[in-house]
Each structure stands twice: as structure tokens, then as C-alpha cells.
Amino acid sequence: LCVCAAELVFYQRRVTTASLQERSSIVTSEIECLKLDRKIQVFS
What we know:
Elements: H1 5-12, H2 20-43
Helix pairs in contact: 1-2
């Protein structure tokens, strides 16, 4: 799992009250997490 996954879960709980800008940054973080996860899997 990505190191920021736990952090993202925390933010996702607030998504309903988050602004559109906050929401898009959360999605961006998730995409970066997935990319990192794939890189780790490839190199491990």
C-alpha cells in the first residue's frame, strides 16, 4: 500500500464537505499513489 493511503482515507471522509478544489487534489493524490504502488510492485 502507498504511504499516503491512510491519509487519503482521512480526507475522503471529509469529501462531502470539501470544496471542489480540495476534491480534485484528493483525486490527484490518489492517482499519484497508484502510480507509486505500481512502480514499487514492478521493482520489488
